[in-house]
Amino acid sequence: LVRIPPGMPLEKFGRQVLPTITSAIRKNSNDAQWVMAGVSLGGQAVAHYLDEAQKNATVSGMLVKGAFFLGTGFDYAYPASFSRRLSGTSGQNICADEFCTRYLSGIKQELVSPRSALFDAAGKPVWREALDNVSLKDKGVRVMFTAGKIDNVAPSESVYKFYVKTIGGETKNSPDVRFFLPGRMNRYARDYDHAMMIASDDLASELL
């Protein structure tokens, strides 16, 4: 198991810690080819790792031949994102009045993160730039993006944007880059939200 130091940025974890972990795993395994998965914010760390896929493969001897992202948001500036709805317009606290009343009525105000932890003075998500310069295009890794139909934490629009960046355009097709949107409209058993992308009765049989 990995002990992640408190407050470590995902970019640093993906670019510095994950290569160390994969090197350690490779020393204890005869398998040369691997599939790497990222769930929610973990997918962002994987994206940073894969941005230097060739270099990391050379160092560790571990070739990541495929990767998949389950409910990983890549653009939190999307207007309907959960973070924006959560912050609302209420004062210094990130908890919008309606949200706090409904879900967090028993929590002390000082225990909820300040708005500044999510947004800068201009109202832009503080982690918005983290993945702007990351590219998974032509890295030799097959990639699958899976966005829940009603996932408001990682909206499908934000995942699709990164998929388009990876494949090289909305009109392009490739057997190495796929985008899935689990929901009833696409003949899945149910519409998937963020929590269901992590754990639900149908996750294994329908998606994994």
Task: Describe what this molecule looks like in 3D.
This protein is of the alpha/beta class. It has eight helices and four strands, in the order H-E-H-H-E-H-H-E-H-E-H-H. Strands 1-2-3-4 form a four-stranded parallel sheet, with helices on one face. Strand 3, helix 6 (about 155-165) and strand 4 (about 175-180) form a beta-alpha-beta unit. Helix 1 crosses helix 2. The two termini are about 25 Å apart. The model has no long low-confidence stretch (mean pLDDT about 85).
Provide a brief overview of the structure.
This protein is an alpha/beta fold and 208 residues long. It has helices at residues 10-27, 41-50, 53-60, 82-87, 97-103, 156-167, 194-198, 203-207, and strands at residues 33-39, 63-70, 142-146, 177-180.
DSSP strand (E) fraction?
A: 5-15%
Radius of gyration, in Å, reads 18 Å
Please, what is the average pLDDT? Answer: 83
The level of helicity is 25-40%
The biggest sheet amounts to:
4 strands, parallel
Classify the secondary structure makeup into a structural class: alpha/beta
Number of strands: 4
Strand order of the largest sheet: 1-2-3-4
Order of SSEs, N→C? HEHHEHHEHEHH
Low-confidence stretches: none
Q: What shape does the CA trace take?
A: globular
Count of alpha/pi helices:
8
Quote the distance from N terminus to C terminus. Answer: 23 Å
